[in-house]
Amino acid sequence: MTPPLDDAALPSRLPRPKEELEALKRAWKPTSGLGLLKEVNNNIIGVMYIGTALLFFVISGTLALVMRTQLAVPENDVLGHSLYNQFFTVHGTGMMFLFAVPIVEAIGVFLLPSMLAARDLPFPRLSAFAFWAYLFGGLAFFCSLIFEVAPDGGWFMYPPLTSMKFSPGINADFWLLGIGFIEISAIAGAIEIIVGILRTRPPGMTLDKIPVYCWSMLVMAGMIVFAFPAVIIATALLEIERAFDWPFFIAERGGDPLLWQHLFWFFGHPEVYIIFLPAAGLVSMMVPALAQRPLVGHDWVVVALVGTGFFSFGLWVHHMFATGIPPLSLSFFSAASMAVSVPAGIQVFAWIATLGKGRLQWTVATWFLLGFLFIFVAGGLTGVMVAVIPFDWQAHDSYFVVAHLHYVLIGGMVFPVFAGLYHWWPTMKGTMLSERLGRWAFWMMFIGFNVAFFPMHVSGLMGMPRRVYTYPGDLGWNVLNMVSTVGAFVMAFGVLLVLIDMARDAFGRGRPAPENPWKAGTLEWIPNDDYATRSIPHVRSLYPLWDNPNLSREVQEGAHYLPGAPTRRRETIVTSPIEARPQYLMPMPGPHWSHFLAGLFTAAHFICLAVQLYWVSLVPGVLAIASVFWWVWGLDKGADHPPQDVGGGWRVPVYLQGSENHSWWGTAVLLLVDGTAFACLCFTYVFLWTVSPDVWPTGTDALPGLGWLFGEAALWIVAAGAMLLASRAVAHNRSWTMRGALLVGLLLMLAAAAAEPYNHIGSGLVASESAYGAIVYMLASWQVFHVVILVLMTGFTLARSFAGRLHARRRVTFDNVMLVWLYTCGQGVVSLLLVHLFPRLAV
Ligand code: HEM
Ligand SMILES: [Cu+2]
Question: Which residues form the Heme-copper oxidase subunit III family profile domain (predicted)?
Fold first, then answer.
């Protein structure tokens, strides 16, 4: 490789040839009209994504207003009992799953590439797919309210209330299938964000020069990878219990409703930080810009972010203080819950110190930030209160908790997000929102919020339980409730003002923004176009625009990296994860119908399942898979161009195989998700055994013989060996050996995956009889599911091989399949050891 740039020189020589910019523009030309559906550019998808999340916020908020109307006076009958239950469930679920998480990811999709000066994130079609799946799934979810079949078990859907016995209709299925599948889109977004931040940074942006926001997004995406599988597994188990009567949560047959709580809160607690950390990251970017000085204690803030992400996984039990947990673990989790306020405190002090040292600009964003600090600190304090166990026992399931959770969520994420909307609006299309309307909106939201939610602390302590649709008039709660309702409406008018402001801008009434209106120091303020920045800047510090006042002009003149489109198509530079050295030029997929159709059909498939049209659901299911094949068929282009000059003396290839390829990283992250899901199933097995060892077999009679264990394990191991053989065959271009090895390996895996349920059926185990049977067959089904995926992937690989698109110098597709394959074999062996050895050892 060529040496990197010496300090003074600019990466590309000026002036640039005229046709260069033309080529760049042509490659990134957006589609118009109906073509918008095909679009993948993060600038466009990001805006649609944010808009959809705001739409869902407004819908969920409207439900809250109706609930507040119902609660304004005692014995009210605006909403009946059953509808109220549906309303709070859809409100809570909508806010948490369809607004809070999606909007932070959406902001990431919009903002990250420009903060990293990348032309786009590494998997543009994946984010577009995630967006469409989310849009269609979310709309269907809200529609369930219209037909009065919305879920009504609360946003955390505790069984047994949500199991078949107590929720016989399809309401709960809407939640389980609707939300379960929308999580796919959250995970897709997380993969995109992780690989994007690690691999598409601008040259020179080493780990210590990553903007705080990117750190926060990296941590949050990492948390999604480890937290969301738990809720996906939980929803899958509950849905399977409902559909096939496999008793995971039914105590009479050895299940345990607490299993749900563990799995759910293992996700649910980190969820709060998944929402809060990106918001904190946004704050850490806005505060320095508004105060015109670097963030005080930058390194500490980063450590705090990473630390929060790490520790918040240990805390799920504090949502279960009232469930009869042993006292020693109670104290441990109580102390840990308080400790997690320390990193939040560090960040708050860093922001206050920065604001205090700088010369503050008073923008709308500043006001929202101050509102955020006030509300969030208040919510943190009540959080410490409920972390005290005796207090929690008092306040549990009262309005005190409703007040606390809204202080944290609205203070901690809604206010920063609105600050961010006003702050970064100019980067969208160069116009500004109205400072005057914005200030009105802020004050209405701030005052309305406190008027609405502060009294709930009091009504909660006076004994008002949460999730009641009405109350008698003689308990002293009347005034407090009326005040809360009035406050909620004032706040809603504040939100409405923001929407009006945004609509004004959309209809061309916005003021044109100056370049970098708040004089910020980070890369997203370099003027942007469909192709992102004209050239990719060389980064030397945390605030490049402050340290080099010429940077923006240099970039716009094309003096930095990749000033054009050398291969005449969309592409960006992939850099090394730590030092951000250019490694290769990644071609990026352009607009296409496939991912849109994949999103549409995936949503249709799950909606059909939710309304129990099982056979019909096969049609969109097959179409979704076909669309995915169509989508990925055109990727993995191989080195179809010679190495290209990207500036700074770097001449890089246009294709790299093996572990340096970005899609290999994407697959690896996906397997982390998969592994976490599998770990949750293993946890389920062991957990159910600890609560009901009596339904487990004692002695070896009831178990399949050891021969099955060794036989099946051998099949998995040999199948893995076949894959390694196939891999060597690819390296030597021995196509027929590869095809043969793949087919043999696949047959072995099919045999292994089928043998496992077969031998349990043989020994008389019935899935619906006991929790033991249920989890054993669940683990076996999990393996079958993986092999089915591998059948599809192998078929695809073979098709590529026959089409001449797979050989020694073009094997990225193959390598990704190999990862999934080897993982599946390993998982198969672990699963066998657990199922066959554990009952033998645990007598
Ligand atoms: C726009 C202002 C909002 C108002 C007026 C509001 C009001 C309410 C009300 C009346 C309830 C039902 C309480 C009960 O009956 O137990 C509730 C529950 C809830 N809200 Fe909000 N809310 C608002 C915004 C939000 C936001 C922004 C989030 C999250 C990001 C959120 C998350 C929740 C959750 C998770 C629940 C619990 C639902 C359950 O118990 O299953 N809310 N809210
Ligand atoms: Cu928690």
Answer: 665-840
Neighbours of 33 (CB within 10 A): 6
Give pLDDT, residue 8.
59
Q: Which two tokens stand for residue 597?
A: 């159709």
Q: Is the CB of 64 under 6 A from ligand 1?
A: yes
Residues with CB under 5 A from ligand 2 (ion): 269
> SS3 letters for 461-485?
HCCCECCCCCCCCCCCCHHHHHHHH
Q: For residue 156, give the ligand nearest its CA.
A: 1
> Which option is the CATH number for 43-512: 1.20.210.10, 3.40.309.10, 3.30.428.10, 3.30.70.1250?
1.20.210.10
* Tokens at 142, concatenated: 């809200």
Q: What is the pLDDT of residues 319-358, one digit of tens each?
A: 777 777 777 777 777 777 777 788 889 999 999 999 999 8
Q: How confident is the model at residue 3 (pLDDT cuts 50, 70, 90)?
A: very low
According to CATH, the topology of domain 662-842 is: Four Helix Bundle (Hemerythrin (Met), subunit A) (1.20.120)
Q: Which of ligand 1's atoms lies nearest the C-alpha of 466? A: 16
Ligand 2 centroid, distance to 461 Cα (angstroms): 20
Ligand 1 centroid distance, CA of 337 (Å): 22
Tens of pLDDT, residue by residue over 283-299, are 999 999 999 999 999 99
Phi/psi of residue 386, nearest 5 degrees:
-75, -10
* Pocket of ligand 1 contains residue 89 by CB under 6 Å: yes
* pTM, full prediction: 0.94
Query: Is pLDDT of 465 > 70?
Result: yes
Rg (the chain; Cα; Å): 28
- The two tokens of residue 787 are 């092999």
Q: Does the CB atom of residue 466 touch ligand 1 within 6 A? A: yes
**Mutation pick for ligand 1 pocket among 406, 409, 477 (CB with most ligand atoms within 8 Å):** 406
The angle at the Cα of 458, spanning 457 to 460, to the nearest 5 degrees, equals: 70
Q: Which atom of ligand 1 is nearest to the CA of 410?
A: 27
Ligand 1: nearest atom to the Cα of 68 = 10
The CA-atom distances, in angstroms, between 434 and each of 110, 503, 504, 511 are 22, 11, 9, 8
The span from the CA of 551 to the CA of 560, in Å, is: 9
| 162 C-beta closer than 6 A to ligand 1 | no
β partners of residue 465: 398
Q: Ligand 2 centre from 412 Cα, in Å? A: 14
Cα 269 to middle of ligand 2, angstroms: 4
Is the CB of residue 213 less than 8 Å from the CB of residue 420? no
For residue 598 the two structure tokens come to 């994949």
- The number of residues in the chain equals 843
